[in-house]
Amino acid sequence: MVKRKNRLSVEEYVEGILAGNRVVLSRAITLVESSLASDQHLAEEVVNRIMPHTGNSLRIGITGVPGVGKSTFIESFGKLVVDQGNKLAVLAIDPSSQKTKGSILGDKTRMEELSHNSNAFIRPTPAGAALGGVSAKTRESMLLCEAAGFNVIFIETVGVGQSEIMVKGMVDFFLLLMLSGAGDELQGIKKGIIEIADAIAITKADGDNIEASKKAKREYNNALHLFPLNDNGWRPQVKICSAVSKDGLADIWTMVQEYKTAMQANGFFEENRSNQRVSWFDEHVRYLLESRFFQQKEVKAGLIDMLPKIKNGEMSSISVARYLVDYFLKDIPND
Amino acid sequence: MVKRKNRLSVEEYVEGILAGNRVVLSRAITLVESSLASDQHLAEEVVNRIMPHTGNSLRIGITGVPGVGKSTFIESFGKLVVDQGNKLAVLAIDPSSQKTKGSILGDKTRMEELSHNSNAFIRPTPAGAALGGVSAKTRESMLLCEAAGFNVIFIETVGVGQSEIMVKGMVDFFLLLMLSGAGDELQGIKKGIIEIADAIAITKADGDNIEASKKAKREYNNALHLFPLNDNGWRPQVKICSAVSKDGLADIWTMVQEYKTAMQANGFFEENRSNQRVSWFDEHVRYLLESRFFQQKEVKAGLIDMLPKIKNGEMSSISVARYLVDYFLKDIPND
């Protein structure tokens, strides 16, 4: 294994990260994101070494459809968080980035003020990878940020794909941004997301829009009361805010901290983290097994013929699955 | 491969099923549910042979927490469906059956009238299998029922586990049963289920409960209007009904048929079926790969040591997943 010129040693990465060196952190994340086998081995050693220094953060997932004002919210809300003495890292999962060439965090200029703040670290989404791969990379990047001393992490995603469930599975608190004026403009959001949110923040509640925002808040509150309580006893809250006037932002931050305090007190915080770690393992096992399966030459060749027959109901989905998996694993003993 | 005494030949199964012979259908489902390798091969041949005769039904998922009156609803609603000249099969997915020894469809006596109707076929849930396995067996059982001439299928499940998403993925219409009086009694239902329902039916709307049911209907209607529309343009509806007075049941059946007509007209019906078939394949591949992985001796042994370390954050979930999958697939070429 030849060490590439622009790579550091494991020791250098670990020391740099633990010292809070942002350049080294950035390079370590690049390493984690790399698909080169030699990089992956190096990344694995680095991540394993920094594991004892991870976990000391509040992880917040933020989602919302395009147009909801996610960037400006994160810019304003992030600034408030940093101004209170926190170190903030912003990461992103964007399943649409392959198609749209990066609709979120495509360039740092999107959050100009925050990106120049020495206590904030903004990392654009890794492009061109499968969602399962992006997810693992984001998790490891999050761990690296924690080891580097960032005590608040935002994981940003767009509310239109598969990624919200994934983000929900890696954060302590899941915040859904919504626009006032229920109806057409909300149709972009994915089904099921409203119910998994720990809070809904109605954005752009300023000027002529304040009354509509208050009305939306009442409506969502009524709707949420029809839903089952969260397992942890938390009743999801609805807030209104404005990234322009800054109204409501402090209230949201207070709520998130109250959530943390309550969940640490009742044990849910650590229990959830522990369950998440096991789920990450399960999900990554699944992702790796599937990747290897669908990449295999014979499986690929078989599916060219069989997939259309599965689609039109000519062949049984279950039978074809059984046949191809048996073929794929034929050399592995079935204990 | 020795043919077991109580097994028929592929020919006998296929002919019996296509002739609508309920005894043969029942025995074919037993075959599909069997975990014996010889049975599985036989089942596979049978299912592949009947594939051209499948799909000609309306598949309806019905879910709701225990206490909502699911059995009595299915008994009354099923009778109405049958009385209109349909042939109805009722199947169940019950993830809790391992623990509770079958909380749904544990015995046929639960739906006494329906179970004695010659145009209804009620099949208790297969017990003691993993959910992914149960899911595949239920899908194949559904196909067998269709080939036997049943043109309406109910897939029943309890609204408290992982199974609703699975049922949603195998039906044309997903009906959620709810009780009036939002609040405590609804807490058993799983998050995200309300949003994926095509309709909510509020049960037990009789006697003193009618007013409360009408109020609940209004509230859910308001809440559902805050949600995004379904991809297919269908606005989920809220109905009230009583299995005792039979009020509202005909209305629900009319709605389901209107849904079918509309979705066939806009192409969603067939498109959804086609997508479901591909998902069944993907899910079963995943299930089989995972089963083989987690059953392997070395993987099992490794996890005894590593799982606690994953849980407490001592080892990286991603690294362990990578290590164990690489080990598991070490003899399979990585194309």
UniProtKB/TrEMBL annotation, chains A, B:
Q: Name one GO molecular function term.
A: GTPase activity
Keyword Hydrolase assigned to the entry: answer is yes
Domain of life, per UniProt, equals Bacteria
| EC numbers on record | 3.6.5.-
Tell me if Hydrolase is a UniProt keyword of this record.
yes
Per UniProt, the keywords (alphabetical) are: Hydrolase
Its cellular-component GO annotations read: cytoplasm
| Signal peptide extent | none
Q: Which NCBIfam families match?
A: lao, PRK09435.1
Q: Per the similarity annotation, which family is this?
A: Belongs to the SIMIBI class G3E GTPase family. ArgK/MeaB subfamily.
Q: What is this protein called?
A: Methylmalonyl Co-A mutase-associated GTPase MeaB
**What is the scientific name of the source organism?**
Litoribacter ruber
